[in-house]
Amino acid sequence: MAAHRAEDASGGGQLVGRGRDLAALLSRLATARLVCLTGLPGVGRTRLALEAVGQLRREVVWESGAGYEPEMLAGVGARLRHRFAGRSGPLLVLDDWDHLGGAGTALVASLLLDLPELTVLVVAERPCHLRGETVMVLRPLDASVTDGGDRPSEALELLRAVLGDAAVDRDPDGAARLCRRFGGVPGPLVEAARAWTASDGDADDIGPEERQLAAAARSYARCSRVEQLLWRRLAVFEDGFRREAAPEVCGGGPLPATEVLGILDRIAPHTLIQDPHSGRYHLPPAQLAVSKRELELSGERWAAVLAHRRWALGVAQQAAEWWTAGRQEEAAALARRELPGLRAAMDPETSPLSPRAEAATALDVVVHLWFLWTACGHTAEGRTLLRHALALHRSPPPARALWLAAWLELDLGAPERADPLLTAAWAEAVRAGDGHCLGLLAQLRGAAALWQGRTEAAAVEFRTALELAGDTSDFGPGPAQIRAALALALVRTDPEAALETAQPGPAHPGAARDGWAEAWARYARAEVLRWEGDADSAQVLARKALRTFLAYGSPIGGRCAGELLADATALSGDGLLAARLLGAVDAFHEIPLPRSPYLAPVRRRAEALLDGLLPPARRAEAYACGARTGLAALLAAQGETRSVPA
């Protein structure tokens, strides 16, 4: 075999996570005359080819195109024809063949025609596109943690093999972030990891090295004009994108939207990383750096960023419509899936024009995602994004934005900051004639009164909200959610009315199902039943509510239902499980949540029951056990011992 590199950029000779790829390559070499092994720069094509040919019992000649120019290939072809003349079953490996372009492809075609016994393996970023060619795309290593986190990813295993366990164990989270950021592409990942361990710094500060940037620039230069156009426009997706987003954001001008997906499929194997689990694409760091530079040089950045912002606004609008239409799980999944891209649109300072010019768009995106911040546990982030957009928005801000700002302040335990926002929102809603928003503001005033324990005042506000908001909702909490809140306000003053108000079922025929409201209604019914001493029924309802809150990721709902479930469990005599539930509630969310006067009696009642059920030492041990186990695991371990109406 001719001289070749004994080791490439895939990691110092380590072949980790490539067992299936090796078997697939050997199978193709046994059945096809022309095999093209393609993939990203640094993905380990040469290393895999070396391993494969080392296992073959046939004559192998390895030719590297690194030292050749197209005009030299006639002599190379003559030499190879002479070498293989009359030989049976030889294998020719052509490595680093990309830069030779059409001349290199013509040589491959002529050798296959003149030497019918010859098999050719081309190792390159892109296939030859010749008849009979078998293409094998070498994908990056899986960079995600699998098996529930019990087994490290293939990319992390590579780092352990190359750097040693001690280097990875110094900061396993940093190593995992590095794997995800470099997408499991072995060469760049190992280079970045070595730089990270040498610097003893933060993994997030490690960027692509000059060799990676040069390889990405060469890859870009070999693309056609429309391929380059798509590549550089993809720079606006800094945190990745789904396939269907590319035409809307990147189409236009000399790149029609109808052609985007076809071009994406052409460049993806050597330009993009696709997550095997989510299907999302992203540009590796070096390719992203090249695309950003080229987008800036082309003068197209402002147009590409604005197209991305309009797409983000459309995504937020779609998610809000789904939430209102009863497709709440889909709405939450869409918002979370696209949140990395949405964040850029919610920051006015990413605008290519001026921050104030795009503050309205940023505000619209934040407000459309109201449910993500209020119902799905992203409250603190929502408040930060909304404050930033409001600060740059031209006065006066919309009433609905002020309404949301007040809600987020309340949820984060700052009713004193919510009050002036409510006042400003009411004035703006009256000025704009937004009756629906007036109903939402009444609902929020009721929520503030409920939070403070003023249940009678809360009930008045919720009834006002129902009158103003009407039977349907095009935005914000619907009538079912307001009725559930009214039931909560009535629980401790009029239990019978609370049960009647919290009964399940749509407000009128054709109304969308509101799973979020149903969970709060179950919580209200569970509290009434608990007050009446029906611990079993209260547990069933609280457990169902808790499942919904955990599915949405709501810290407030999780705390409320978790503490009520613990209280009802203690009432039934199971002090150990009740203590574990309270421990899990306290550890449920990384951001400490404020104590509401409305919720305080539930916790006090549960703690008082535990005083008579467990000695202090065992109780503390149960708290710690619950904190380690978590609410979701504790809930999964429980079975429903009795059925009650949904």
Low-pLDDT parts are 1-13, 640-646
The biggest beta sheet is recorded as: 5 strands, parallel
| Number of E-state strands | 7
Using the coordinates shown, work out and report the CATH topology of the largest domain.
Serine Threonine Protein Phosphatase 5, Tetratricopeptide repeat
Strand arrangement across the biggest beta sheet: 2-3-4-1-5
The portion of residues forming beta strands comes to: under 5%
Rounded mean pLDDT score = 89
Span between N and C termini? Answer: 73 Å
Query: Structural class, from secondary structure content?
Result: mainly alpha
Number of domains: 5
Given the structure, what is the number of helices? 32
Shape: elongated
What is the CATH class of the largest domain?
A: Mainly Alpha
Cα gyration radius (Å): 31 Å
Tell me the CATH architecture of the largest domain: Alpha Horseshoe
What does it look like?
There is one protein chain. Helix content is 61%, strand content 4%. It has 646 residues and is mainly alpha-helical. It has 5 domains: 19-137, Rossmann fold, CATH 3.40.50; 147-207, no CATH class; 212-299, Arc Repressor Mutant, subunit A, CATH 1.10.10; 396-513, Serine Threonine Protein Phosphatase 5, Tetratricopeptide repeat (Alpha Horseshoe), CATH 1.25.40; 517-637, Serine Threonine Protein Phosphatase 5, Tetratricopeptide repeat (Alpha Horseshoe). The strands form 2 sheets. A 5-stranded parallel β-sheet has the order 2-3-4-1-5, covered by helices on one side. The protein has a two-stranded antiparallel sheet with strand order 6-7. β2 (60-64), α3 (73-84) and β3 (91-95) form a beta-alpha-beta unit. The radius of gyration is 31 Å and the shape is elongated. The N and C termini lie far apart (73 Å).
